[in-house]
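Hey L., structure's done. Input below.
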Amino acid sequence: MSTTLEQQIRESAYHLWLLDGCPHGRADEHWLSAERQVLALASAPVEAKKRSTAKKAKTSEPSKPPRSMSKRKTTAGADLAETRP
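Output:
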């Protein structure tokens, strides 16, 4: 484990301990919670990169162009014209 990662876990565990009211005998619980949080944050950019790569692969396929509004039949305009004084 790198020193910076360990330091982040240590600081996070300390903050969790403070938020929990500084209880005695629960250092391992706070450390493991902090470790999970820090490692999840550290791996988040990797997961985001994996997802964006998967999205790029999906978007490279040709897609249908969006439907034009002019092709849709609506009667709302006609109804409004009839109700105007």
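The two ends are 77 Å apart (CA to CA). The CA atoms of residues 28 and 62 lie 52 Å apart.

-- N.
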